[in-house]
UniProtKB/TrEMBL annotation, chain A:
This is Branched-chain amino acid ABC transporter permease. It is found in: Cell membrane. The keyword tRNA-binding does not apply. The keyword Transmembrane applies. The chain crosses the membrane at residues 36-55, 61-85, 92-110, 116-134, 200-221, 251-270, 282-313, 325-346. It is a multi-pass membrane protein. It comes from the Bacteria. The lineage of its organism: Bacteria, Bacillati, Actinomycetota, Actinomycetes, Micrococcales. Keywords: Cell membrane, Membrane, Transmembrane, Transmembrane helix. CDD domains: TM_PBP1_LivM_like (cd06581).
TrEMBL record, chain B:
InterPro entries: ABC_BtuC-like (IPR037294), ABC_transp_permease (IPR001851), BCAA_transport_permease (IPR052157). It is a multi-pass membrane protein. It comes from Agromyces neolithicus. The chain crosses the membrane at residues 12-31, 38-55, 61-82, 94-113, 142-162, 191-213, 219-238, 245-263, 269-292. Its main location: membrane. This is Branched-chain amino acid ABC transporter permease.
From TrEMBL, chain C:
It holds the Pfam family BCA_ABC_TP_C. SMART domains: AAA. Residues 5-274 form the ABC transporter domain. InterPro entries: AAA+_ATPase, ABC_AA/LPS_Transport, ABC_transporter-like_ATP-bd, BCA_ABC_TP_C, P-loop_NTPase. Keywords: ATP-binding, Nucleotide-binding, Transport. The keyword Nucleotide-binding applies. This is ABC transporter ATP-binding protein. SUPFAM superfamilies: P-loop containing nucleoside triphosphate hydrolases (SSF52540).
Length: 392, 295, 279
């Protein structure tokens, strides 16, 4: 066992003594553990998404739902940048624009199929992320915010002025996805149930958003890279002292965010089949940021709720459409003042689990006795594998 | 020459707004995102007062000065109010939280004004469209001279306040060491309020002047100028008042030449590219002190 | 036997202030060295230079045969581009690199990752040693699972080693101060160091905790790790350290065993002042 695990570590001159104490196994039930509940919640959401077209497959509903899903993708990407890595990006919509324009240009001007444009989109977003990130990520967070804002404006104005991007009127007639002859436009027939184009596209977007956007980002956040991001967010100097190259950690967060936004942009370009510079104003960067902050920075369920709120609010509150930006602005201030961690904070514990929460160790008086017991078990035993049998 | 003159006019607007940015940043290290919108508010306060009296298409300079003072006081108070409500409770919070709050404030101001005055541009009631004359081949109008003189006067007053008065000394003390200043008996909250008042009233003055100069105002006019003013503050060295003035004028000139050479539609791109270059290679700006990063 | 860490003629200037002014000392493998000196003597600044956070004005630091200070060629100095290039990572060794070479440190005031659990804090320190790629994280390959398992095992091992008894799922801000100190030491150990720099590890601890800390530092030394600590508690230093370096005004004024240091007239003068200067 120990040998097999050693493969995972490189040049460790100093290895930890094997753990001395038995850990209690974590509960895994749906209502007895955070993890189980989240999994169940995720499954239920996937079911809801899957069932929706059977309830209402009208053009309007499908269009709104697709947009909402794309918003979730976008917000999950920004969450990596702002929530995990703690870098305020006020020009995030620029990457969305890069994705939309690159896929639009490749499919309309060059006539590539949509799937072939995907690598180009991803590559363009990586390059854009590096170009803007490399010089500025050394800067303090507030400078970064303004620089990204300026970058967002540069991209929009450039798109507005260039010939190839169609100027102020943008790009029209962006094709849907087709795979060697069969395209989403043809619809789909399964077991006698007809799936029209919009439903097929909706399912496609849902699959991408759930697999890449939500699960992918969540997994990255839990691994080595995610820990590095959070460490940089919490304390940059300490992270550097822990052997994390903070510059690389930040730029990787930036690139991941850019790629997520680019993919969302490509989906949006297909969804709307037309894009114009007006859809990439600062307003939208602020809206996405608002969704992430409102839901809870660094919290997957929070960000999804925030994204749904921001994308669906104008549809549900038609009468307030005029007022919504004002309301959003006030909400942003109020949330920051009174609930800075958002509606569903990343550190939230389910209310009924709070009882079982571990209590902090008491303010040490018995520590020296603990120390004695620890020393007894270490002294004299070669510090490699004390309880090897128990743990493997 | 014409380019230089035009650049100076625009630059003096930038400088006025940049001063507020720089003062606030210098004293509480907050990037007051809503500052550009204070500029917009200043223009709208002037618009509102004049419309309330039914004045339009006026060209008198004394009236402009009265409106200017009124707007300055109003926006100054609004600035103090914003600081009290939105920023003061968060003074000990992480920087990210305060920045996000500032964005929220900016949104609130922009769309609040939009709800009151509507989304369309309004014609500013005072127009300074007097006949121009040529000086050494440069077309100069009286209104331009008036604006430059007002801007210069405001900056001189500000320099006097910061350099010569007790409050100015307190400001510089807080900028260096807030806790130390507090221990020395400086009322930190009061001084920060004063800074917000001065900074906001300068932005408000710039707003009125821009309204009179360009003739039309709208609720989003503060966004771009806020960005530009920040650029100016960074070029000059953020936190440094003379730097902000210098940066504003420089940026005005750069833009004036940039748009002449590359075309007007690239003007903003030009300015922001400059911002990014500056932050990359000389983040302390032209006059900024070299900051030793302490852990 | 060549030294693990060789600091020679280290100088650091902030403007006109000489924070460190010609410091030289050596650390050998598996020894406990204490650096002491009055407040403002430049101890922490020296630490920051050694661990790569500050760029010394001159002097050299060699760790395990590698140079930590890399002077820039005169050419770049002449162009006045050195600070810019250094901010991009040229002509310097980043602290993260120093850590990878095997030097870990703690901070004077606790610098734990506040929004991470105790276990995650320690796991973070394994960053540089963990074989875990982008795609394996996305796809949760067996390699990823193995890496995470090894990582948790190491982290738990170190938490037990330092005697942390609370739940590993607590957020560090929920812990009492003494426990946070323990977690910080566990985190530093998890980077697999040959040399551990502790910046005032006993500050703010009560008597029992100090006793536990002394035992812990000895056990760390017994693992073969050299420990260098800055400390103000003379009792602790005299009992624990095998060798002591004394700084005053950025200069080294003494270097020797605790007994030698206790008798050194220069040290007594620095701490108590001579008659004439005493006010």
């Amino acid at each position: 066992m120990a040998l097999r695990l050693d493969v995972a570590l490189k040049d460790m001159s100093l290895r930890a003594p094997a753990p001395l104490f038995e850990r209690q196994p974590q509960p895994r039930g749906v209502f007895t553990s955070q993890r189980g509940f989240m999994l169940a919640l995720g499954l239920v959401s996937v079911l809801v998404i899957a069932v929706l077209p059977f309830l209402d497959a009208s053009l309007y509903t499908m269009s709104i739902a697709t947009s909402a899903l794309i918003y979730i993708m976008l917000c999950m990407g920004l969450n990596v940048v702002v929530g995990y890595a703690g870098l305020l990006d006020l020009g995030y919509i620029a990457f969305f624009a890069v994705g939309a324009y690159v896929s639009g240009i490749f499919t309309t001007v060059l006539g590539w199929p949509m799937w072939a444009a995907l690598p180009a989109t991803v590559l363009a977003c990586i390059i854009a992320g590096v170009i803007i990130g490399a010089p500025t990520l050394r800067l303090r967070s507030d400078y970064l915010a303004i620089v990204t804002l300026g970058f967002g404006e540069i991209i929009r104005i450039t798109a507005n002025n260039l010939e190839i991007t169609g100027g102020p009127s943008g790009i029209h007639g962006i094709p849907s996805w087709d795979f060697g002859g069969w395209s989403f436009n043809d619809g789909f027939n399964l077991f006698g149930i007809e799936f029209p184009e919009r439903v097929v596209f909706y399912y496609f977007v849902a699959a991408v958003v759930i697999v890449v956007g939500v699960i992918g980002a969540g997994r990255l956040a839990k691994g080595k890279l995610g820990r590095a991001w959070k460490a940089v967010r919490d304390d940059e100097d300490a992270a550097e002292a822990m052997g994390i190259n903070t510059y690389i950690a930040k730029i990787s967060a930036y690139i991941i965010g850019a790629v997520w936004a680019g993919m969302a942009g490509q989906l949006m370009a297909t969804h709307l089949s037309a894009i114009s510079p007006n859809s990439f104003q600062f307003l939208y960067s602020a809206l996405i940021l608002m969704a992430v902050v409102l839901g809870g920075m660094g919290s997957t369920p929070g960000v999804i709720i925030g994204a749904l709120f921001v994308s669906l609010a104008p549809e549900l509150l038609r009468d307030f459409a005029e007022w919504r930006y004002l309301i959003f602005g006030v909400l942003l201030v109020v949330v920051m003042l009174f609930r800075p961690a958002g509606l569903w904070p990343a550190t939230a514990v389910l209310p009924w689990l709070k009882r079982n929460r571990p209590t902090p160790p008491a303010f040490t008086d018995s520590i020296s006795s603990v120390e004695a017991s620890v020393m007894e078990s270490v002294d004299g035993v070669p510090h490699a594998d004390v309880h090897e049998g128990d743990r493997s | 020459m014409q380019l230089i003159w035009n650049g100076l006019i625009v630059g003096s607007f930038y400088a006025l707004v940049a001063l507020g940015y720089s003062m606030v940043y210098g004293i509480i290290k907050l990037l007051n995102f809503a500052h550009g919108d204070i500029y917009m508010l200043g223009a709208f306060v002037g618009f509102f007062t004049l419309s309330a009296f039914g004045i339009s298409n006026e060209t008198s300079i004394p009236l402009l000065l009265v409106i200017l003072l009124l707007s300055m006081v109003t926006t100054g108070l609004i600035g103090v109010g914003i600081e009290r409500v939105a920023y003061r409770p968060l003074r000990k919070s992480p920087r990210l939280a305060v920045l996000i709050t500032a964005i929220g404030v900016s949104f609130t101001l922009e769309y609040g004004v939009r709800q009151i005055f509507g989304p369309n541009p309004e014609a500013f009631p005072i127009r300074l469209e007097s006949s121009g004359f040529d000086v050494a081949g440069v077309r100069v109008t009286a209104s331009q001279i008036v604006l430059v003189v007002i801007a210069a006067a405001l900056m001189l007053v500000l320099a006097h306040i910061v350099e010569r008065t007790r409050q100015g000394r307190a400001m510089r003390a807080i900028a260096l060491d807030p806790q130390g200043a507090q221990l020395m008996g400086v009322n930190v909250n009061r001084v920060i309020s004063i800074v917000f008042f001065i900074g906001s009233s300068l932005a408000g003055a710039a707003g009125v002047m821009a309204g009179a100069y360009y003739g039309s105002i709208d609720f989003l006019m503060g966004f771009i100028i806020g960005l530009k003013a920040f650029t100016a503050a960074v070029i000059g060295g953020i936190g440094n008042l003379y730097g902000a003035m210098l940066g504003g004028l420089l940026l005005g000139l750069l833009e004036s030449f940039g748009s002449a050479w590359f075309g007007g539609e690239w003007r903003d791109v030009f300015a922001f590219a400059f911002l990014i270059l500056f932050l990359t290679f000389k983040p302390t700006g032209l006059l900024g002190a070299r900051v030793v990063e302490r852990m | 036997m060549s030294a693990l860490l060789e600091v020679s003629d280290l100088r650091l200037q902030f403007g006109g202030v000489k924070a460190v002014d010609g410091l030289s000392f050596e650390v050998h493998a598996a020894e406990i060295l204490a650096v002491i000196g009055p407040n403002g003597a430049g101890k922490t600044s020296a630490f920051n230079c050694i661990s790569g956070f500050y760029l010394p004005t001159s002097g050299s630091v060699r760790f395990d045969g590698r140079n930590i200070v890399r002077p820039a060629p005169d050419f770049w100095h002449a162009l006045r581009l050195v600070p810019l290039l250094q901010s991009f990572g040229f002509f310097r060794v980043l602290p993260s690199r120093v850590t990878k070479w095997g030097m870990a440190r703690t901070f004077q005031n606790l610098r734990l990752f506040r929004e991470m659990s105790v276990l995650d804090n320690v796991k973070t320190a394994l960053h540089a040693r963990l074989r875990e790629g982008f795609w394996s994280t996305l796809l949760h390959t067996p390699g990823y699972r193995r890496a995470e398992e090894a990582c948790v095992r190491e982290a738990r091992g170190w938490l037990d080693f330092v005697g942390y008894q609370g739940s590993e799922h607590l957020y560090v801000t929920q812990l009492p101060y003494g426990e946070q100190r323990r977690v910080e030491i566990a985190r530093a150990l998890a980077t697999s160091p040959q040399l551990l720099l502790l910046d005032e590890p006993a500050a703010g601890l009560n008597f029992n905790e100090k006793q536990a800390l002394m035992a812990l530092i000895r056990r760390i030394r017994d693992l073969g790790v050299a420990v260098v600590l800055i400390e103000h508690d003379m009792g602790l230093v005299m009992k624990l350290a095998e060798r002591i370096v004394v700084l005053n005004y950025g200069k080294e004024i003494a270097d020797g065993t605790p007994e030698q240091i206790a008798r050194d007239p220069l040290v007594i003068e620095a701490y108590l002042g001579v008659e004439e200067e005493a006010r």
